[in-house]
Please model this.
Amino acid sequence: MRKSWWKILALLLLIYTITAGFLWKVPRLPILNETIRNLYFHVCMWFGMMIMFIISFIYSIKYLASNKYVYDIYARSYASVGTVLGILGYATGAMWVTVTWMPDQHQSLGAVLKEPKLIGAAIALLIYAAYFVLRSSFTDMDKRARVSAVYNIFAFVMLFPSIWIIPRLVGSLHPGSPGSDSGNPALNKDDMDSTMRVVFYPAVIGWTLLSVWIATLRIRIELLKEKSLIHAA
Amino acid sequence: MQHKFKDIFQKLGFFFIMMFLGITTAMAQQQEVEMADVMRSNGKIYAVVAVCLIILFGLFFYVFTIDRKLSKLEKENK
Model:
């Protein structure tokens, strides 16, 4: 175990998230009912994804600035963990939709499928999927690192219109859009009361630390692979 | 004197308890939003918490073993 204190911190924070997240009191709201507790899990996946993509983006820029191959490995590992978190966020969101928007807000499946936030998130994830397709299509290591670093910057920039800007411009059922009466996105101070913040912020940190841990494992595997390749050659 | 104080406290205490009960029942009537109160009252929610914690522990244990294996490999490859 290398530098293990923050890994233990991640475990402790997630234990706290699950216990307090299920047992601590939450605001009583119609339609949402107990599903409001999904905030500690579903929203944290997207927060984690965003943080992973930011780290990946920084390493891509660093690669282009320095041409050090390690940075390419970093960028790729963080992007892959970010994509996994995005898929988990999408799946949990789909679960949440079936019990809140569909039965209680009387939305048809068609309305949910037209939902701009969902389409935007799908586009963003597909752009990142294309990043991995692009990576695997190169045989030359330097070319792969360079082109995929440039593409990663493009993919990161595309996140902003697709999941942050467009759903706010057009109406959306998702909390945070002008069409919904729940106001501005996730970070609105009126949306979440202080009892939920006490659990939510540690939850974000906990899930993010776990993701960073998994990303570092991937990085170390890749570095080992590179080393053994060099030894074999 | 002491006796008298005790008496007053007892009466006050009774009064507050009654008031508290009255307020809570009034509040309970106001809120019609359904929550999983029944589930919490008979304690079954703890089963869910326990299940999730077991999964969490399992997950962390797994990641931890991978981490340890990697550390070993890294040492061997040095």
